Automatic annotation (TrEMBL):
This is ABC-type transport system involved in Fe-S cluster assembly, permease and ATPase components. Signal peptide: none annotated. Residues 4-242 form the ABC transporter domain. It comes from Serpentinimonas raichei. It is found in: Cell membrane.
Length: 242
């Protein structure tokens, strides 16, 4: 798994309004770094930069999509993120987003989306790990049930578990959990957290969370506030610091 490095990253969606204000941190290969902080701090923005949803690295110049005011450098194993194609980044990075939008297709299609070469049995195992296999097989059309506007309506938590199954199946070297369990009830959350931690082992992982309590075993925790890292340390150190 690659090392991820942010060097003095600045970013804003609009001119004159910086959302990220000089972020520097490293996620060593195979380790987990968690970013915690209040809503609006810039956590999701930081995650989006990592898969080049927006560009970084042309200080004072608009990116190709017109996004203004970006500066700094993001790299994977020392190689500038801008030298990767979108397709290669998609293969390398698996993200479980906060709000999953599923394809208007079968549950199986949605789970196998990142790995169409994987067999149906592998998709079932991933669903089992995400605690939705029993739920799916109880549906009249099982894994072939269509979801979305033209099919089954899933709750936020169910959609999130489909996204988790998809990421488990894809098994990429870099993982991003953007409040990956925020839509789940606490019983499911605990079970799935254990699952997420075990897949995150030996992968370079960025965990985004509101609460410090959900990221106990990260190698490092960054506290983000208004686009700046205001504290960093291990879980116990940050708790001690209040
Ligand atoms: P967090 O994940 O910590 O809640 P976000 O990264 O989602 O924070 O948002 C940080 C700031 O950027 C917020 O003020 C938010 O309103 C703003 N923002 C997020 N996405 C966009 C966007 N697509 N366009 C303009 N502003 C945005
Ligand atoms: P919060 O409730 O604090 O907003 P979320 O549950 O929304 O946090 O998002 C953080 C999630 O990331 C955790 O609940 C858990 O599923 C996952 N997570 C936390 N720590 C780790 C870790 N060390 N490795 C892998 N995944 C983790």
């Amino acid at each position: 798994a690659p090392e991820i490095r942010f060097e003095d990253v600045h970013f804003g969606y609009e001119p004159e309004r910086e959302i990220l204000r000089g972020l520097s941190f490293t996620i060593p290969a195979g380790q987990t770094v968690a970013v915690v902080g209040p809503s609006g701090a810039g956590k999701s923005t930081l995650a989006r930069l990592l898969f080049r949803f927006y560009e970084v690295g042309q200080p004072g110049r608009a990116a190709a999509d017109g996004t203004p005011a970006a500066g700094g450098r993001i790299s994977l194993d020392g190689q500038d993120l801008r030298s990767f194609t979108q397709a290669s980044l998609r293969r390398a990075i698996g993200i479980v987003p906060q709000d999953t939008v599923l394809f208007n297709d079968s549950i199986e299609y949605n789970i196998r989306y990142g790995r169409p070469d994987a067999g149906p049995e592998a998709a079932r195992q991933a669903a089992q790990a995400a605690h939705i296999h029993d739920f799916i097989t109880a549906l009249p059309q099982g894994y072939q049930t269509r979801v979305g506007e033209r099919g089954l309506k899933l709750s936020g938590g169910e959609k999130q578990r489909v996204a988790i199954a998809r990421t488990l199946l894809k098994d990429p070297p870099i993982l991003i959990f953007d409040e990956a369990t925020s839509a789940l009830d606490s019983a499911n959350e605990r079970a799935i957290q254990a699952e997420l931690r075990s897949v995150a082992r030996n992968k370079t992982t960025l965990v985004i969370a509101h609460r410090l309590s959900t990221v106990v075993d990260a190698h490092q925790i960054l506290v983000l506030d208004q686009g700046r890292i205001v504290e960093r340390g291990r879980h116990a150190e940050l708790l001690a610091a209040g």
